[in-house]
Design goal:
The chain contains 14 helices and 6 strands. The chain is of the alpha/beta class. It folds into 3 domains: about 100 residues, no CATH class; about 70 residues, no CATH class; about 140 residues, Trna Endonuclease, Chain: A, domain 1, CATH 3.40.1350. The protein has a 6-stranded mixed sheet with strand order 1-6-5-4-3-2, sandwiched between helices. Helix 1 packs across helix 3, helix 5 crosses helix 8 and helix 10 packs across helix 11. The chain is globular, with a radius of gyration of 25 Å. It starts with a helix and ends with a helix. About 30% of the residues are buried.
Amino acid sequence: MKVSKPKYEKLLSDIGLTIEIARQNAIRAINTELVKANWEIGRHIVEYEQHGQERAEYGSALLTKLSKDLRQRYGKGFGRRNILDMRRFYLAYQKWQTVSAKLSWSHYIALVAVSDDTARKFYEKHTLNENLSVRELERQIDSSLFERLALSKDKKGVLQLSEKGHIVSHATEAVKDPYVLDFLKIPQSHKMTEKDLEQKIINNLQMFLLELGKGFAFVARQYRVSLRNKHYSIDLVFYHRILKCFVLIDLKIKNVAHGDIGQMNLYLNYFKTEENVEGDNEPIGIILSAEKDEVLVEFATGGISNKIFVSKYQLYLPDKKQLQKKVKAIMDSR
């Protein structure tokens, strides 16, 4: 039998696609059943507690006995910590209808570790909005993304974060302060140049994009700007797909000087005139520095119509408890 190669390749491709779709559907179905089973186990534990007035805290006799007996009957997967996670899962999501089929059990383990309901709802919505992997979700929790975003908002804004996630509709919502760059793994005592910092970011571009947030697409590094016989280089250039504008980032390893703000203003004016095309909005400039003088920044940016932001970066995870305390003060305010 003579086989037409193009037709055969299409047959092979169609069968392959069918197999991949079936496998993906099977994985989703298994995940849904696993999440449902763990929710039911958590419900059984909580109902047992309510009837017996017993608390199944970590290390309790009930958890120890349950873990031992379940492992003997059903094998691995029923360690004491796993049983506690199932109980926490049910307590956080007591209505099955509030559990999303789009999230895996591993996602929910990360979410139930967040004790504050408002923060947990934000991370859940944020994960769904941006289709975060478990690793990416854990990174956002560890870097206190919710608290960092919440500190720039009032009580109403914090609640909106919890209900809708991080929605970017204008420039100020696309910028964070501070940015957490712990994934670069640079010791605080290490002497670093701006070129070193830039290279580290390029080497970890995927994690940097995650820290920047939804909508950022990488365009170029050391973007050359030529004005007559003078040449300048913008450290990093991105395009924001939602805001439809270029985002220019300059890196500073020391305190920001007023000249740095003036230079960014020059870059923005250049992009508006020479790089923007029909449909592009005005570009945004972010000066990312180790330190900043708030008063100097206020006076240096005053009267400038371009969107210039000065944000600090830090090379270590923030003090979560301190940030949580500040957010609580916002939520307790009238």
